[in-house]
Amino acid sequence: MTLNLRLFILFTAFSILSLSAQKKEASLDFGLFLGASNYMGDFTQGSMPVMGETKPAGGLVARYNYGPYLTFKGTALYGRIQGGDYNFSDDLGRRRRNLSFRSDVVEFSVQGEWNIRGYENTRTSYAWTPFLFGGVSVFRFNPKAQFNYIDGLHDPSLRVQNGDWVELQPLGTEGQETTKFNDKRRYSLTQISIPIGVGAKWQLDDHWALGFEFGLRKTFTDYLDDVSTIYVDDIIVGGASGPLALAMKDRSLEVNQMKFENNEARGGSGGKDWYMMTGITITYRILGGSQPCFNF
Question: What is the pLDDT of residue 78?
Answer without folding.
Answer: 98
